């Protein structure tokens, strides 16, 4: 569980720094994501919070809101072998 928390926290920090390092962050295409969704094994987490989430017109259907600031709370809901896709568009 600690490894998952550390991994997710690292990802969130990368997400915050994305404008500076955009060329170095691996991305997943919508087709790759769709294939993973079709498998039924992946969870999509929308890590935006506050107005960034509530005022957005763009949300992935089926995504779970899991604000990055609450990682300690929601990370307990997932196992370390469960694929998670986090986005903060």
How does this model look, in words?
By secondary structure, the protein is an alpha/beta fold. It has a single domain (2-87), classed as 3-Layer(aba) Sandwich (Oxidized Rhodanese, domain 1). Helix content is 43%, strand content 11%. The chain has 5 helices and 3 strands. The protein has helices at 2-16, 18-21, 30-39, 50-54, 71-74, and strands at 43-46, 64-65, 84-87. The chain has a 3-stranded parallel β-sheet, with helices on one face. Strand 1 (43-46), helix 4 and strand 2 (64-65) form a beta-alpha-beta unit. The chain is globular and about 30 Å long. The model has no long low-confidence stretch (mean pLDDT 74).
SSE layout and pairing:
Elements: H1 2-16, H2 18-21, H3 30-39, E1 43-46, H4 50-54, E2 64-65, H5 71-74, E3 84-87
């Amino acid at each position: 569980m600690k490894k998952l928390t550390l991994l997710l926290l690292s990802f969130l920090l990368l997400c915050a720094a994305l404008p500076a390092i955009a060329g170095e962050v691996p991305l997943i295409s919508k087709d790759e994501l769709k294939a993973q969704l079709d498998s039924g094994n992946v969870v999509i987490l929308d890590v935006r919070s506050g107005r960034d989430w509530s005022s957005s017109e763009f949300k992935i259907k089926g995504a779970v809101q899991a604000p990055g600031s609450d990682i300690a709370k929601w990370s307990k809901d997932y196992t370390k072998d469960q694929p998670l896709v986090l986005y903060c568009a």
